[in-house]
From TrEMBL:
<feature type="domain" description="Aldehyde dehydrogenase">
    <location>
        <begin position="29"/>
        <end position="473"/>
    </location>
</feature>
<keyword id="KW-0560">Oxidoreductase</keyword>
<feature type="active site">
    <location>
        <position position="250"/>
    </location>
</feature>
<dbReference type="InterPro" id="IPR016162">
    <property type="entry name" value="Ald_DH_N"/>
</dbReference>
<dbReference type="InterPro" id="IPR015590">
    <property type="entry name" value="Aldehyde_DH_dom"/>
</dbReference>
<comment type="similarity">
    <text>Belongs to the aldehyde dehydrogenase family.</text>
</comment>
<dbReference type="InterPro" id="IPR044086">
    <property type="entry name" value="LUC3-like"/>
</dbReference>
<dbReference type="InterPro" id="IPR016161">
    <property type="entry name" value="Ald_DH/histidinol_DH"/>
</dbReference>
<dbReference type="InterPro" id="IPR029510">
    <property type="entry name" value="Ald_DH_CS_GLU"/>
</dbReference>
<protein>
    <recommendedName>
        <fullName>aldehyde dehydrogenase (NAD(+))</fullName>
        <ecNumber>1.2.1.3</ecNumber>
    </recommendedName>
</protein>
<dbReference type="InterPro" id="IPR016160">
    <property type="entry name" value="Ald_DH_CS_CYS"/>
</dbReference>
<dbReference type="InterPro" id="IPR016163">
    <property type="entry name" value="Ald_DH_C"/>
</dbReference>
<dbReference type="GO" id="GO:0004029">
    <property type="term" value="F:aldehyde dehydrogenase (NAD+) activity"/>
</dbReference>
<dbReference type="Pfam" id="PF00171">
    <property type="entry name" value="Aldedh"/>
</dbReference>
Amino acid sequence: MSPGKVSNIVFDKFYNIVDGKQRGSDNVHHGINPSTGQELWDVPIGSQQDLDDAVAAAKKAFPAWRDTPIEKRKELLTQFGELIGQYTDELLAVFCKETGKPKKSAVAEIQGVQYLVQYHCSLEIPTEKYEAEDKTIYTEYTPLGICGGIIPWNFPLFLSAIKIVPALLTGNAIIIKPSPFTPYSGLKLVEIMQEVFPSGLVQAVGGNNELGQQLCEHPGIGKITFTGSIATGKKVMATASKTLKRVTLELGGNDASIILPDVDIKRVAPEVVKGAFQNSGQVCIATKRIYIHESIYKEFLAEMVAFTKSIKVGSPDEEDNFLGPVQNSMQYERVKGFFQDSKKQGYKFAVGEPDIVAANKGYFIQPTIIDNPPNGSRIIEEEPFGPIVPTQPWSDLEEVIARANNTNTGLGACVWGKDVEKASKVARRLEAGSVFVNSYEKADPHGMFGGHKESGIGGEMGTLGLLAYMNAHVIHVYKS
């Protein structure tokens, strides 16, 4: 039976969720609406005591959940997915204010949570069996125990669910820490989950960087799953190493798109633009560098420019927006730095203006393409995480593959070409965790998502992603 809406959940007051109960604090902070610059609702700043209490509650809830058959776990996850759908309108109002995303993008993220639940409920935990003359070896998997999830601000709902859902499916308890930039929807997600799951099984304790460190240090937590920057990911790994916690780190990228000369220019150029500017470039696997064959460079770039000029940027209250603002002032200033550097170096702005003029108090930036900046430039070497992208021509396939791989990151990449077999061969030579042929970057739960090099450790989603929440448990049974 599907659960109905719960009348006591309100969407203008926000709490940490500890042991199934709402918990406030004398210390509060608030997010900023990136479309207006206005302060949003107060949220509590969690303390060490809040975290200790959450770990104690998780420790109490874990054994019964570990021993719950997986079909029962799936049943409760399915109920949660259905319940989230009933709160779409309420979540949408909060979500658009905290992220600035256009309504279509916001709805897609909420639906993505539901699809993530549905997909995971189709999975089984793998096992292996080896038979020999004198013994049988069973490889099984058991849950780690209590997991901690540190959530970023760019996809606060989906990236909460991408950690919560597999953790619960595999029999773990989990405590998430939402980003202080976007704390609201994640807290409500966990509050709604209390109507389905036992107390202490899924909890939320929000706060600042100090709380994140406490989460990584806590001896009662067996795993940290973190999505965020490379620099912070290294700190997470170092801190978690003190107690030998398992870690999953999904970090930054500098994704290359290689455009082969046989593409349908008019069809492909707009798709490449979407890949670069999706969510205003605030996507870890957004296209960050675009390499176009020299024989089509001018024509392809012209089509990119034309499509970019048609993109509407605005607040969620306006209709038909493709892009919203940059989510927070810190990131806004960082992205502006790439504009200032490109202007100072004299690079050509194919579309967009070097000087960002704020039309209001929101963090809006028009999507911008830099035409053929040199290798070694900041816009080529670093990840802006905003709506600005460079293009470069190429002539030699070996050289452009080497150029694409010449980075310390390796999260995603794209190859575009009419000859799919040739494009796929190029894709297999790119040093990235997820490579897309004839599509911009779209992570899919059916495949594990993780990075090579400094783009991460481990991965999420897919059957392999489940194993990141489990220990191998190998039973050797001798026949005599």
